[in-house]
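User: Hi! Is it possible to get a structure for several chains at once, not just one? Here's what I have:
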Amino acid sequence: MEQPSGTVARLLITCPDQPGIISAVSTFLYHHNANITDLDQHSTENRPGTFFLRLEFQTPGLDCSLEALESNFRSRVASKYDMDWTLTFAHEKKRMAVLVSRHDHALMELLWRVQRGDLSAEIPMVISNHDDLRAEVERFGIEFHHVPVDAQNKDAAFERMLELMDGKVDVIVLARYMQILPPAFVSRHPGRIINIHHSFLPAFVGANPYQQAWDRGVKLIGATSHYVTDDLDQGPIIEQNVQRVSHRHSAQELKALGQDVERSVLLRAVRWHLEDRIIIDGNKTVVFVK
Amino acid sequence: MEQPSGTVARLLITCPDQPGIISAVSTFLYHHNANITDLDQHSTENRPGTFFLRLEFQTPGLDCSLEALESNFRSRVASKYDMDWTLTFAHEKKRMAVLVSRHDHALMELLWRVQRGDLSAEIPMVISNHDDLRAEVERFGIEFHHVPVDAQNKDAAFERMLELMDGKVDVIVLARYMQILPPAFVSRHPGRIINIHHSFLPAFVGANPYQQAWDRGVKLIGATSHYVTDDLDQGPIIEQNVQRVSHRHSAQELKALGQDVERSVLLRAVRWHLEDRIIIDGNKTVVFVK
Amino acid sequence: MEQPSGTVARLLITCPDQPGIISAVSTFLYHHNANITDLDQHSTENRPGTFFLRLEFQTPGLDCSLEALESNFRSRVASKYDMDWTLTFAHEKKRMAVLVSRHDHALMELLWRVQRGDLSAEIPMVISNHDDLRAEVERFGIEFHHVPVDAQNKDAAFERMLELMDGKVDVIVLARYMQILPPAFVSRHPGRIINIHHSFLPAFVGANPYQQAWDRGVKLIGATSHYVTDDLDQGPIIEQNVQRVSHRHSAQELKALGQDVERSVLLRAVRWHLEDRIIIDGNKTVVFVK
Amino acid sequence: MEQPSGTVARLLITCPDQPGIISAVSTFLYHHNANITDLDQHSTENRPGTFFLRLEFQTPGLDCSLEALESNFRSRVASKYDMDWTLTFAHEKKRMAVLVSRHDHALMELLWRVQRGDLSAEIPMVISNHDDLRAEVERFGIEFHHVPVDAQNKDAAFERMLELMDGKVDVIVLARYMQILPPAFVSRHPGRIINIHHSFLPAFVGANPYQQAWDRGVKLIGATSHYVTDDLDQGPIIEQNVQRVSHRHSAQELKALGQDVERSVLLRAVRWHLEDRIIIDGNKTVVFVK
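Assistant: Yes, the chains can be modeled jointly so their relative placement is included. Here is the combined structure:
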């Protein structure tokens, strides 16, 4: 059910599984006159299990302020069930910084989607370790920061990037950013850095995955979007897709075909993050897809 | 969350949308100590909207009999919200009759899946207007009835089939059954007859869709599974899929490729029906896919 | 096998099938020291059949000029086998006019691909019946012509468009151009006008196919790229693809999802045309895909 | 172009690339009155390159015996270009042994396809290290050999299997055969053993790939068919495909979904081998797909 986005709230919940959670949450919202329009639930199989819930509700009829709703939920429901939870409002667009190196395909897709309103976000800045894409970015009216990174200045460079983004971003997207993020950087934005890896993970980790794929003679190439953790290429996978190739394609052509997959896979992952459809569950994701 | 199937109940609900339904249903189940393990919900966009719900719950801890639960739900919840609803138990396998003409591919897939426990159903009988597939069917230990149909005996033939199935079947699958069902037959099993049509509906209705597809030079062929209504090829679509083809394929080859699509599309539709994942909404379906 | 594009020639042949054609063509090229790097062949099943051939060859070692090669081929091979044929050189980029109305998604993809060298074409102009997309187009440094079309001026408008393109374009792409082309326009560019239709033809011809698809409750939506003929939506299909949808998607969401399919399907069709991979065979296409 | 299979011959050629090969081959066939109905060609990019060719031709009009044709081709064409080549006739069905352990899904698909004429092969025997599937196999009228394999008797067991197949099989299909073949076995059937691996190689080599995939939280699972070499899971890949999964699927469900992918991927690989569409190129395959 589509609603005016200004009136949509989203609740994401993770907690130990036990009977009565849905009843407690839905009854709480009903009593505050919040109309649930979408509800998706998942519980893990292990015992004791973990319970995951995403729901969307309408706020116009609320019998209290959003703040009061949040405060009441915390005290009356969340604490009782030991919940990790977030409550967001669709009208508060997330602020998304994009980090990029030289390949523009994934970046352009994001800028273009945001510009035409296809992706509900604000882009306060693009940061790159190269200056090549400045004009492309600035013509969208978006700030571009060139922060070179080399072996000598690596810590300082990432410190500089953290300063640039300080208090200004809710999510960071690596749109083919070819530097490895230091732990100090990652720990400042836990669960909020999305990367696109140019292979079907866990196949072909490391450098030059398209050449590796060509050397191995695979019949499908792929791309993987995942949250960044300190373990390179090992973070929770959000989305993957593949593209059929054949013996006729050179390694260079795999790269070109793969860029289209990267572009669409990253777009889906970013969209789901922006719409609060993803809960991180250890090294996996629960994705409540429409 | 997978559970011993003997303890799983499924509730399908359709009713006019209004606030509080999820709260009412989930609280009812909680109070009877039924643990919800899966919940999926949908509301239509139009106003007043229609509310659809599927939920699975565990029955071992119930504080009453299944019959009492059903009776209580009717009087305390369903009537209040004007619900159309069904409550089923996974351990009660649906009885599925299969109607077929001469093509065996879809039939064999169903028999094979049921035999190996991949599909939770019983097959009390297969009925065909030809005798060709008798041996194939009987070697699975399944009754085979040959009921010829021609212009002269059509009404009598379908009356005979209704008698054969009377009280013995919960769902009828047309696995490439090439006779048009008369209204009197369809009306006896409303929303319980599943057909596989050998084209990507609504393209290529009528006879010989693969030849039509070849003549038109399409680049994808498809198959459609739908519930049967009195409007030929117009019933609610359950599932569709396609297969890429090229100028190199003859009409005959389209037919062979298409049979693989038919087989897998029908299997998915039947599986969803058996798992109570489908609600018919006018001429459409709501399918709560895993 | 990838080659410097400056040295690649492509030969497309259609002729009545008979033994010896491949031998004749390949021997001719060999004797002129042209090295065949790719060859793809197809013959129709009917009798007498039609023979289709696409081959790529290298020109650096040629023992004569390109003009002499062409002239010799005509007199010594093509006339003997009654061939329809075209010989093109990859370094001569095709000039592509794009016609568009208000939707920018397909247009932007084409402009962006040409700009970054992903698509080997020149775009001498974009023509629209609205002025909305002028800025978008002009920032790529491409001429934009606004040619309004209404019931009164239709003939004159299309005449004006023909004049604008006269002698300047090799192929015309309708990137969601929402006016029906008059026969006088189509006949001036036979087999050189590519359209993207926003449905999986032949399903949902006519207006508002996404609404039609939503009304029918299909589980896959699609897009179709085809050459334009005087029969609306009936021209030879070049490429099609689909996207899975569900009961959760509104007609408006089908439209948004469909635009991504339109974009990628049109891109493939245009790419294949530009690379001389398509031969029109009556109301079908032979597409020699890599 | 479909032809009566009794009259179709297929020529597969691998040789060092040089100008004139297609001319030489096609002219040779033309002079013997063999009509080429399908030709597909590929050359590798490296220098000096390798040339691969598959062609189908009609034999009814031949001016000599098949033996003479073969002998003439060897002396007049193949030796000049230093060709590896095979000439096969579609009416000579390949004899295919199937090795299987306990999972029946891939085996049943092959038996069923051969029985109904969908797959052009003879199956002289099925060999298993378990006796479980004997009845399933024998009801197709096919010999079943139970050859147990354990750590003690491994060499003897595979020796026994070689004896059983000696002179009776052209290709060996491992339809989920869970024993590692010893080098002495592999070397007796080079390029003639096809395996289905239950993961998207090179991801998840080794044991229990579905559990590995579940642990890693991938969003697509896959299967890979490849020729067996002495390097476990490293042989030339023939075909791969994937299936979308989500957080809702248990490891056990990944396995069930994966079996459908295994079944269809193996079927395609086997079909292509039987139709002489595959040339092994080092550790890769060239697959001339229809």
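Residues 78 and 85 of chain D are 8 Å apart (CA to CA). Chain D touches chain C through 25 residues (CB under 8 Å).

User: Great, thank you!
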